[in-house]
Specification:
The chain has helices spanning 3-14, 21-33, 158-163, 200-206, 224-248, and strands spanning 59-62, 69-70, 87-89, 95-96, 114-116, 121-123, 129-132, 137-140, 146-149, 154-157, 189-191, 197-199, 260-264, 271-275. By secondary structure, the chain is an alpha+beta fold. The protein folds into three domains: 3-123, no CATH class; 129-206, no CATH class; 224-275, no CATH class. Strands 2-1-3-4 form a four-stranded antiparallel β-sheet, with no helix packed on it. It has a two-stranded antiparallel sheet with strand order 5-6. Strands 7-8 form a two-stranded antiparallel ribbon. Helix 1 (3-14) packs antiparallel against helix 2 (21-33). The protein starts with a helix and ends in an 18-residue tail after the last strand.
């Protein structure tokens, strides 16, 4: 089809009052695509990649740097999601030009139930998603449950935001466990009471061997019940040691008093001194916890 015929068809579509603007755009794109038939890649030239593990979608997107068609930016980290200029239908291999939609202009194959024309995100997973203008990217969740914290520079759960501390750009950091980005992650995240963020799955595995925030060492959860157990154990151990001292009749050696040691509580930041003990369990005189060093 020559250039004049294309212009004629485009004018006819634009003047068709029976079509709304979205329908006009779709028809115009089909006309414009007719001159790119030779550019449509066949399966022999570029085989369709396996299903994307991050976003189930019906299309491939073209990387602005290497010019390859890939599943998504997470499969191909060098790609800039905001510079995608070509999308290819996985069903009929038709190349789509901007402006994109969530369906193929040739075969009407659905690329994604959710589509964002800012992030160029096509997504078929049954998850609530919305675009946050302040974050500049799409977020998993609902605007009813999430709010953008301008101090943390991220969308956080409204309930957690009311009870947690905030740190400047805390969500722009890496997860302290896996060292992956927190700001652009698709993995669920948790906001600790101390204000630090961590991937939820990383946190789940981490708390199996430690109760403290890996960033600031503050207790991750309420440890009152555990501290009561520590206190009872400490009393029992100290009584046993005192009895042993009396049996050995050696008052010059007291493993419960080996000089003094300067300590700090990781929960309340209280500085204090205690008698150095072989037991090495030191209770904070301020908050009565044992998260001390």
């Amino acid at each position: 089809m020559d250039y004049n015929n294309i212009r004629k068809l485009v004018r006819e579509i634009q003047n068709d009052k029976s079509l709304n603007q979205a329908e006009k755009n779709q028809k115009i794109q089909k006309v414009m695509m007719s001159q790119y038939k030779n550019a449509i890649e066949t399966e022999e030239e570029k085989p369709i990649e396996e299903e994307c593990p991050h976003y189930q979608r019906g299309c491939l997107v073209k990387c602005d740097k290497c010019k390859l068609y890939v599943n998504c930016r997470l499969c191909h980290p060098e790609m800039d999601r905001f510079k995608i200029n070509n999308v290819k239908c996985k069903k009929c291999l038709t190349i789509q030009l901007p402006p994109f939609s969530n369906t193929c202009t040739n075969c009407d194959h659905i690329f994604g139930k959710y589509f964002c024309d800012i992030c160029n995100l096509f997504m078929n997973k049954d998850k609530d998603v919305f675009h946050c203008n302040d974050c500049g990217i799409c977020r998993i969740g609902t605007q009813e449950n999430l709010m953008h914290c301008h101090k943390c520079n991220a969308c956080v759960n409204k309930v957690l935001h009311a009870t947690s501390k905030c740190f400047e750009n805390s969500w722009n950091n890496l997860c302290p466990i896996c060292q992956e980005s927190m700001h652009q992650t698709t993995i669920p995240t948790s906001l600790l009471e101390c204000g630090h963020a961590i991937h939820s799955e990383c946190l789940k595995n981490y708390v199996k061997h430690d109760y403290r925030c890996p960033t600031c060492m503050h207790s991750i959860t309420d440890m009152t019940g555990i501290w009561d157990q520590f206190r009872n154990q400490l009393t029992t151990i100290e009584n046993q040691i005192q009895q042993q001292i009396q049996i050995n009749d050696n008052p010059d050696f007291n493993p419960l008093n080996m000089g003094t040691i300067d300590l700090i509580c990781n929960d309340c930041n209280k500085h204090f001194s205690k008698n150095k003990s072989i037991v090495r369990m030191y209770e904070c005189p301020n908050c009565k916890g044992f998260n001390t060093n």
